[in-house]
Design a protein that fits this description.
The protein is an alpha+beta fold. The chain has helices at 3-13, 56-65, 73-86, 94-110; strands at residues 19-27, 35-42, 50-55, 67-68, 71-72, 130-131, 141-145.
């Protein structure tokens, strides 16, 4: 019912670093039918904003200090971590959790660890638990867009 409104918002939010792609989607419940063509935003190496492989520490430092038109990159990361935890068993993402941990450490080291990282950080969204058919990035590296 809000498809067009949501897509317009995401197109603006993701315009500088991501491209629209289509991928299959399998809900966590095998009783639900898979979606053969699900729209996703993916940062491709061909994008001028793409930095390439980064160590988790360097990526955490970049996330801590950067922000975009939609807000602080760290807030997005912490909300993603919280949302994944809120989905329940099977939705955990070790890479996201480790990256969030290291990003918090960067904030503590800089002395800027304010309310952004308070306990109970949550996101109120209607989202269903899903599993991914994709493989994670090699441990310790991630690809990001330029700050």
């Amino acid at each position: 019912q809000h498809v067009n409104e949501v897509q317009e918002y995401l197109d603006i939010r993701e315009i500088n670093g991501y491209s629209i792609q289509y991928a299959p989607f399998q809900p966590a419940s095998r009783e639900e039918r898979p979606i053969e063509k699900c729209m996703v935003y993916i940062g491709l190496p061909s994008n001028p904003q793409f930095l390439g492989p980064q160590s988790l520490d360097r990526l955490a430092a970049t996330i801590w200090r950067c922000k975009g038109p939609s807000g602080e990159n760290r807030d997005y990361l912490f909300m993603l971590e919280d949302a994944l935890k809120g989905l329940g068993d099977g939705a955990e993402d070790e890479h996201v959790e480790e990256l969030a941990k290291r990003t918090r450490e960067k904030g503590m080291a800089s002395g800027e660890i304010g309310a952004t990282l308070g306990d109970g950080f949550s996101i109120e969204v209607a989202i269903e638990k899903v599993t991914s058919n994709s493989k994670s990035s090699p441990k310790g590296t991630e690809e990001v867009e330029k700050p």
